[in-house]
Amino acid sequence: MTIKYNEPAPAQDTASVLLGMEGVTVTAAEEGEGGRLLVWARVSCPAACPRCGTVSERVHDRVVTRPRDVRYGSRKVDLFLEKRRLACGNGDCPQGTFTEWAPQVPPRCRITRRLLEHCGGEVAERGITPAESARRNGVSWPSAHAAFTGKADVLLRDDPEPGAHLGIDEHRRGRARWRRDEETGEYVLLADRWHTCSCDLSGSQGLLGQVEGRTADDAAYWLAGAPPAWRDAVQVVAIGMCTICQSAVRKMLPRAKTAVDLFHVVQLAVKTAGDVRRRAIRELYGRHGKAGDPEYGIKHLLEKNLESLSPEQSEKIIETLDATAPGQHIALAWIGKEKLRDALNLRARITGSVPCERQARDRLFAFYDWCAQNEQVPELITLARTISRWEDAIVTAILTGVTNARSESLNRIAKLEARHAYGFRNPASQRRRVRTACTRGTRRNASSPPTPTKRTVTMRQRYPG
Known about the structure:
single chain; alpha/beta; five-stranded mixed sheet; 12 strands
């Protein structure tokens, strides 16, 4: 493009370019009160009858509308748009008269299309609420919400792409809502605050679906609606230690393997050691633990990993627990926790090499053997029985390295979105808002960064100082 510096463009055309609205020409502009920008413009598109398509120039009347438009920088814009009411030149057309319009300002439209797109984009990409977007842009909440709905329906795909790893997790937001039936006197569930989410763990699709409820049928509901080819492509499903999700996976994904998130396994072992510590303190002092008790003072050290403890901290634990018989029970539970962690640490993320199934089961057997030798600690027996029920899923998690961490992070985003909205009343709106928020990072990463411009230096630059 060639720019002629000695031939400036007309002022009106320049103002129309700055306005950036197709088919609209700026006639005047001035600064109003409070820093507002007043713009007068007229429609310059050829007008055709909406019924017969006849182009007409017979002016019947002139009207001035004030559609809401986007800001000009930080300044609000008051747009005065002049439109002509034209008479149809076709005598056989029953239309009579019609008003000319521009692509950004359709007939009977009081908000420009680009302002609605801006409102929907703010909610979808910036993460603000429709109420905040409506206040900022001077529109009503239904207009901002409808703009977001139109944009979100385009962004969210109904049919997910096939993926090898799937994550299923549930989260709760608020309490359930009930209504009492006047005829039977029973309470009927109106809204279940538990939601079951399905997430893509191997790809970049983020949250795939969300259903209300946390029963096995609720978890299987979304899986049942997925295409059969997509269900056959799933190889590993990561879940928490939840029998409800396990039942749904066995029902809808019989070919997929179940992997337990190892975070929950370690959490259960840490809780078991804490239960033993609390029981031992009650046996020693006849009350719950206090700050001055030696066993209470090492409770945070017992929760840490063995390799994270310093020599002084390890010595403090041993000296404290060897002093009494109940303290030795705490030591047995703590050693059992570390033996279980020793089996979980076989995964490739820690060792750098993929383990075999026999290694994982041998280390789990060493954990079982330790619990059986110390059956005087009932909490250890309960822990061993729970781990044995989930052994196949734990071994799968060790061998494949599939974790449910991404599902947990998306659950945090879902709860944050509900807090921003001060709760949801419409489940469809909640699913739309949550899915849009959980796929926002994927859309940002998909946009490729601009290619940096390379410039060859042909001469030595002078030092500017």
